[in-house]
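yo

u said u wanted the structure for the complex thing, so here. seqs first:
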Amino acid sequence: MTSPDEHPRTDGAPAEASPGLRDRTGASPAAEAPAAPGEGGAADWQRLHPLSVWASAVVVAVFVVPSAIVGTVVLVVAGQPLWALAPVPGSLAFLALTTYLDLLRLRAVRYRVTAERMEMRSGIIAKAYRSIPRERVRSVDVAAPVYVRVFGLCSVTVGTGEKVGAGSYQLQLLYVTAEQGEWLRRDLLYRGAARTAGASSADGEEAREPGETELASLDPRWFAYAPATTATLGVGLGAIAALVGMNAQTGGVGWDWISDQIALPTAEEVSAFLMARLLLVVPLGLLGLLISGVVVLTAVAVETWWNYRLTREADGTVRLRRGLLTSVSLSVEGRRLNGVTLHEPFVLRSVGGADVRAVATGLAAGDAKKTTAKSRLSPAMPRERARRLAADLMRAPDSPLDAALAAHPRAALRRRFTRAVVVSVLGAVLAGALAWLHTLATAAWWEVVHRVEREIIPVPLASTAVEATPSWGWATLAVGITAAAFWYAVGSYRGLGHGLHPSYLVVRKGMAVRDTVTLERSAVIGWRITRSPFQRRLGLADVAATTAAGQGMYAASDVGLEQGLEWADRAVPGLLEPFLVRPGSDAEEGAGVRGGRGTGRR
Amino acid sequence: MSADTPRLRPPRHRVDRRAVWWWTTRSLTVAVLLTAAPLVPAVFWEPPRTWFLLAAAVIGGVGLFVTVVMPQWRYRVHRWEVTDTAVYTSSGWLWQEWRVAPMSRIQTVDTARGPLQRAFGLSSVTVTTASAAGPIEIAGLDRALATRVADQLTDTTQATPGDAT
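structre next:
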């Protein structure tokens, strides 16, 4: 945060917030009634809800009891009736033990929210005490998985920009009632406005709802973008590989058994049938992969993004709501949202889609890859819609994403071509080696390979196809790899860019995944310039702005050194200035070591 | 290139000359250990002995080369500077890095001395900001100087408004 605007607020917060809080709890007992988080004053220690133990027990039971029953059946079938008595009582005892431990944990956990801080005590044997100053709270995440929701509970995760106690960046309550979760969500992030909003707090819940503006809500058509990932074929492959794996586990017996039961032809007949119609089988196979991938990925997207709604509340807090089975509500303090990322993976980009992610302090950078990552503020949506949403989120008069991006020097392209050449050479070597092995393979050897493959998969195609490949097929492979490598190099170079907006800096890069990142210039807390030996030879550098938000560092990659320094200097005036020399205006060449007059005062 | 293109000038101060010996010792230790690894089986195992010896020779050669070249190179690159407004460092040898952090964003300042650094009377100053990009480290300063730098940084940081995030 910037020092000038922040300071008065931190100074004033404790003194001001305290009466404000009491006022709220006192003035509207009805609104606070359900969980009574502040009934005897704000400083009361609260407990987790007792039902949370049963929620956990149900979760464990759902997994343990059926597997115990299956175990019993298997043991009976296997002729071990004595052992069959073990699983069910055993699992029940296990369940009782975990529930008991959970009960102890529940008894030990206390939390409270005072005017200055949120505190939590926990631990049965090793006592832990963690405390977060309220002005350090960056995000509040309220999640309710379906098995918890049926009990009317939810989990609350409070995120901060720094470590809280033993290596954790967050503080988690498992579980509290939904009302209490909602109250915490509002109260913890409401500090800034607590002063000004004395009136609105008295008005209670209804008054605040109209204050929020909707930034985006779900358009079911967006689910069409869900399967547009490189993973689609992969997920389909995974689904089919699971079936094949099960067959292989039984040494091919599974398929034989099924074909006996329903009078299917044997594996040999099937493969002969298929090999005769290869032109039909291969496209159909790919289509099958595609469809199973599409189904799985769409289902995941629907689960994650159902009821999606992104709003900005009256006090500037950005609130995300989504989820079908696990409903999630995440609030990020407006001031902590230092920028956005327009995320465009290759396949999504080629169908004109994108999604928007937050660059915010307190949202863990490590989970950025997960589909349920907290930094994801939108599902995949049309590119233009995503850009509009990004502009709305940044509240800048003209969208920083529209800022003109400077291209990087041709040397950056040359660097990528060098890499492409290396990949091509490796590809040629690989193809050559395979072709050589191909000439070595004898008929007897192929026989063995075919037999092995037939045991694994009822429809053996791979090894037959390989055997049928003529030698020039391998040359095609080498050419294909070369073409792909150079195409990737050009795309990667085109993706590079950096620019400036009056209050944001913008960097873009990536071919497989193109990320356009905007970062508030006031959120830059330093620069990091790195140069590899190759970059030094070509006059390039990676110029990265370090920040407390998001990944912690956003770089303009392979930018010309002078270009990058100029950009960095203009982005944050004064920070880099003392360490730059401008040959035209400043001291003589080589003054670097001793010179740079008037810069340091030591 | 116009006359106004900026260049990055090196930070003002070099690290202590003794750092060269510190880096040499460190590199030599690693090189010796890595070279010894394939020598052990070479002693006990007859048939592939020549191959193990060859591997040891290659690793030893590279290790020796690094040990000779790296410390001098690092000494030319590693520099630091503390002004009233910022900390500025450069480090590395093949891969080089320049870091700038403003005083107002510094969270903590530590000095640290490993056993090897202590043997040479050296010390490191680590400057942490709120960024996940990692701390800024000035390694290989004279112990007394490191303490002075850390004190100065702490004083300046406290005098500079801002809560460092």
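Residues 1-42, 192-208, 365-371, 586-602 of chain A have pLDDT under 50 and may be disordered. The first helix of chain A runs from residue 3 to 27.
cya
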